[in-house]
Automatic annotation (TrEMBL):
The keyword Manganese does not apply. Keywords: Cyclin. Residues 40-140, 153-238 form the Cyclin-like domain. Gene3D superfamilies: Cyclin-like. It comes from the Eukaryota. The keyword Protease does not apply. It comes from Basidiobolus ranarum. InterPro entries: Cyclin-like_dom, Cyclin-like_sf, Cyclin/Ssn8, Cyclin_N. Belongs to the cyclin family. SUPFAM superfamilies: Cyclin-like. This is Cyclin-like domain-containing protein.
Length: 277
């Protein structure tokens, strides 16, 4: 790309459709699904290790950047997901023992959280060697560009500026978490993604995004174009229809009852009113 180094990780639509994987024969839709699977793997492993959300966001961003320059034909998304998470724990200073990371990776990959993984087993050694070998490849592929700006900070600032409610911020945060599975982190700058999540949340909750400030519409207040916001919103929403491999959408319920694990989930059907607006 002929863009400055600081902008090298933002790609146009036509570039997203000509990744190394696609040039190797992987259909566009299949690549999106496999990227999403890799991100789901990162989140599943990370939550078991009680890693903070920012570490998971950093790891998924690394994965998306990696596959803008490497092919899924050459690297499995689980392998790169594990490696990106390992690197992210260092970057975000949320280190976990490599042994613990490997054990959870094996369990999640084999879909058995109770699986006993011994350090002297072939599977443990394979994952250990793979992660340590791929670490250098990942670092070189992402050009050792380890500083990640995430949309969460912008989201909280926008909510304050637009006088949004706590449920609005929580719901938008949930949409941001799900946006990690999409290629938005290599398409739009963080404040655009934050604005899109806020826009969807406002539609979902039927909450107005504040009164215009100094005669400006809300999207100008957050320094974004409505076209970019709507496009990013569409990409966030499209995943619930286009990526059948995804788990149920984590979203704050419309009621104002306390958020618990039992009521923190909603089916895709409840997103109908968002699509309609």
């Amino acid at each position: 790309m002929s863009t400055p180094y600081s902008c090298q990780w933002y790609f146009k639509r036509e570039e997203i459709e000509k990744t190394p994987s696609i040039q190797d024969g992987t259909p566009f839709e299949k690549e999106l699904i496999e990227r999403a699977k890799g991100c789901n793997f990162i989140v599943s492993v990370g939550r078991s290790l009680q890693l903070p959300q920012l570490t998971l966001a950093t790891a998924t961003t690394f994965l998306h950047r990696f596959f803008m320059r490497q092919s899924l034909k050459d690297y499995h998304y689980y392998d790169i997901g594990a490696t990106c998470l390992f690197v992210a724990t260092k970057v975000e200073e949320t280190l976990r023992k490599l042994k613990d990371l490997i054990v959870v990776c094996v369990q999640k990959a084999q879909k058995n959280d109770k699986l006993l993984v011994e350090e002297d087993s072939k599977e443990f050694k394979r994952w250990r060697d793979m992660i340590l070998y791929n670490e250098e490849i990942v670092m070189e592929t992402i050009c050792f560009d380890l500083a990640i700006e995430h949309p969460y900070v912008s989201l909280l600032r926008f909510t304050r500026e637009l006088k949004g409610s706590k449920p609005l911020a929580q719901t938008a945060w949930a949409f941001l978490n799900d946006s990690l599975r999409t290629t938005l982190c290599v398409t739009y700058r963080p404040h655009i993604v934050a604005a899109a999540a806020l826009y969807i949340a406002s539609k979902y909750l039927d909450e107005k995004l504040g009164d215009p400030v100094e005669g400006k519409p809300w999207w100008e207040v957050v320094d974004a174009s409505i076209q970019d916001i709507q496009d990013a919103s569409s990409q966030i929403l499209d995943q619930y229809q286009q990526l059948p491999v995804l788990p149920q959408f984590r979203l704050v319920p419309k009621t104002h009852s306390p958020i618990t694990e039992s009521n923190f989930y909603t089916s895709k059907k409840k997103l109908t009113n968002v699509y309609a607006n």
